[in-house]
Task: structure prediction
Amino acid sequence: MGRKIAVVGAGYVGLTTGACLSHLGHDVTCIESNPDKVELLSQGRIPISEPGLAEIVEEGLSSNRLRFTMDREAGVKDREFIFLCVPTPQDEDGSADLSYLVQAASELKPYLQPGSIVINKSTVPVGSTHVVADALGRSDVHVVSNPEFLREGSAVADFLKPERVVIGADDSDVAARVAGLQLRRSAPLLVTDPESAELIKYASNAFLATKISYANSIAALAEAVGADMDDVVIGMGLDSRIGSSFLQPGPGWGGSCLPKDTSALIYTAQSVGYSFSMLDEVVKVNNAQFDRVAEKTEQVIGGSLEGMTIAVWGLTFKAGTDDLRESPSLEVIGRLRAKGAKIRGYDPEVKGSSPILDGIEIALDPYKCCTDADALVVLTEWPEFSTLDLDRVVQELNSPRVVDTRNVLDRVALRRRGFVYRGIGRV
Result:
């Protein structure tokens, strides 16, 4: 039997959560403060690129199990479960800004039904469950932590077929009620205290960042000693204790989660007097990787980048999404521009300009992106890049020079066509 649920926030996490819960048979109202977004979503128009999301939103709207509103009072009326899915952006000191979370809780306070359960799904530092409870000021309302583990590009599948569900609650009966909303298939369920649940999310993302920085460090060593990082990754990944995921070298890590969550975990450690020096180094290695890619570009050019036109394939932080937030591509591009280069970029999911792309000429075709460019730099691992016509690329470029930071191109085929080639972790 479906439950009555409210989801506060219709961003990436909130929209996915609301749509998927409606798909599971629940009655869901998504509360969003942006009127334009409410109108678009009510028409079934999805502002983000996420496979399968548009279909289940349309399903929810058609069945009247999913609706969108700005009205907080109406949105939480008679709702048994209220999911908080609001932004927790990074402050200048690296900490998480909880103002949106506190505001949402404060605004909901008068309208919540006694016995309802407020579920914090936003990524938050340890102690945030109690921050929400204090902002609510309702002893007759339960507050639990239920961190999300959604990956952009596979968020719908991640929600409907989770690898694990983590619930932080002081009341086991409340935790069981929350678990019952999501678990339709067999998945590990961990019920723990709120503090542990909150730390699990930060610790997981910071570990992934650590793994990538380690891989990029090994890749640098592989280049120095003449090893092939592609084979090193295979060999390491065959060890079940390590696994192959997040071992692929690249231009550095980024996106909407890893940078802010790693910084927040460092800040959390500092706030309790612990110096998380290993994570400090992980961040330093990552920043250095952006610089290394810019230096590799100078190497293929054979000198200064001043006045050079660099073609860039890939602007989003990873393939399968249109998300440009904290993209490693933009970090590298910033360094190339600082060296005097002019940038022309192509990405299958970027069709127009935006403030975040100021100073970058956007091409709508990968070949036109290369026209009269002095070098090509591949920054995002879109599968289509490996199938493009290299002969045509040669014809478009001023000179056949490429830096492949994702190792997605055929280096043998490139060199056969006269390319000066640089990859990551291979020579």
Summary: Residues 150 and 159 are 7 Å apart (CA to CA).
